[in-house]
Amino acid sequence: MTPVRLTLIDLIIVAVYLVGIFLVGLKYARNYRSDIDEYLLAGRKLSLPAFVATLVATWYGGILGVGEFTYRYGILNWVTQGLPYYVFAILFAIFLAPRIQRSGLYTIPDQLYQRYGRPVGFLGSIFIFFLTNPAPHLLMIAILISAIFNISFWIAFLVGLFFSLVYVFLGGMRSDVLTDIVQFGLMFLGFGILVVNLVKKYGGLTFLQQNLPSNYLRFSGGENWQYILVWFFIAFWTFVDPGFYQRCYAARSPQTARRGILISVIFWLIFDMLTTTSGLFARALLTNIDPLTAFPRLGEIILGNCWRGLFFVGLLATIMSTLDSVSLLSAMTFGRDILWRLKPDTAINRNTQIGFIVTILVSTMVILFIPSVVKIWYTLGTLFIPGLLIPIICNFTKYKFGPNMIFTGMLGSFLATLIWFLIGIKKGSLAEPLFILNIQPFFVGLFTWLFLLPLASTRFSINSGR
Fold first, then answer.
1. I need a surface site. Which of 110, 223, 336, 379 has the fewest CB within 10 A?
2. DSSP state of 466
3. Residue of 457 and 222 predicted with greater confidence
4. How far is CA 79 from CA 6, 152, 191, 227, 241, in A?
5. What is the pLDDT of residues 296-355, one digit of tens each?
6. What is the mean pLDDT of the chain?
7. The total number of structural domains that make up the chain
């Protein structure tokens, strides 16, 4: 990404934000390093406002990907990246959130270990480690910092790591929540400023209708139904999203968890309206740009001094609030659910810090092979969600499948998805795979599960709950 043109006052505003959020995150870095509940779950005392702020801020880290998607497909971005997530989040809040909070566990793999045993728990931990990989957020933060300060990508990558991860490495979830509360306000402020200026300068819907391809204002975005449907299935990610579970475990009460998610949906809807509107204006006003840079370029040309700096702070806050959270989740999964399970006599918090290092290394490799935010989302969601959905959902029902069946289903679903995906890459490319009969690998994984489930009939039983 070529540098954006910022004035000295804009750069000062951005620098003050980076240093300020770093210092806020460090506030609890020493106090709770040896306390497992505090380090991993902020003491299980999240109030309703803190719960909403951290959940809303954490869910939106892929902001440059949102700009990329809207620039390419129009309001299809909202149809695929917004609407289905509201639905599943509401269902999660009503049926799962209170039960998760009352369980007193730490992670999703805890549930798998507890109900299905060690092999299933370990395999699930590996899947979740990759699902929580922060590669797309590291890619975005590096691109944005590189453009703001006119430095190389990899130097920007290191700067982003330092200002986003050091405080959460030291202070855990308590530091994460404190910074999320600040970033929650900044992300809304940044995009609010941008949209107000756009509408004031160019008008509203009439301008967009006159300056956008017609399919950009259609719900389908010109794509086929299967492509849209697979994104709806990927939205099942909500049911296996470790961030939702972590915040429910950390909530003060079951009511806080349920109400917090329902209130968050309202804020997500508002923020989606702001970002989708911005993306449509970017497509109407800007041509021949890298879609991933749609929002930075739009802010650069539309906003004046100082306002431009605040908008870029909003972009950074949106990404960093998720980057630190998912990095902590990935590190927790590796440190507690993999390392600690292998060596129970080791310190969980120390293992989690080792997990941070492994997470960063894996994320770097993912970025090298898949340098696109949307494609990283798609690839990781496609490969790992199908194998996790059924065992996690069954965990909240009275029905119980045998551990061997669950392990076979998870592994079989993943392998079928992976093989189908690799065939598509061979027929096309990593960037543009061509799938047999245009069938998405996600569905292959789910169909594999549906094929294997009848084989579980001899092992199937109803859990009496006693």
1. 223
2. -
3. 222
4. 33, 35, 20, 12, 20
5. 999 999 999 999 999 999 999 999 999 999 999 999 999 999 999 999 988 998 999 999
6. 90
7. 2
Alpha-carbon distance of 47 to 422, in angstroms, equals 45
Tell me the angle at which helices 83-91 and 254-285 cross, rounded to the nearest 10 degrees. 180
401 vs 45: CA distance, rounded Å:
34
Question: 70 and 202: one domain?
Answer: yes
What digits encode the pLDDT tens for the residues 288-311?
A: 898 889 999 999 999 999 999 999
DSSP one-letter code for 29: T
DSSP, res 251 = B
Contacts of 417 (CB under 8 A, 6+ apart): 382, 383, 386, 387, 441, 442, 444, 445, 448
- Shared domain for 288 and 413, answered yes or no, is no
pLDDT of 457 > 60? The answer is no
Same domain assignment for residues 307 and 426: no
Could you tell me if 317 and 92 are in contact, meaning their C-beta atoms sit under 8 angstroms apart?
Answer: no
State what percent of residues in the chain have pLDDT above 90: 68
Is 161 within a domain?
yes
Answer yes or no: do 83 and 130 share one domain: yes
Q: Of 334, 355, 372, which closes a domain?
A: 372
User: What is the domain-level CATH number for residue 12?
Assistant: 1.20.1730.10
Which two structure tokens, joined as six digits, stand for 403? 């551990």
Calculate the CA 319 to chain-centre distance: 10
**Does one domain contain both 223 and 98?**
yes
Q: Return the structure tokens found at 384.
A: 């790992």
Q: Which of 240, 273, 218 is nearest to 60 (CA)?
A: 273
The reply to whether 329 and 433 lie within a common domain is no
User: pLDDT tens, 382-440?
Assistant: 899 889 988 888 877 776 678 888 999 999 999 999 999 999 999 988 778 889 888 88
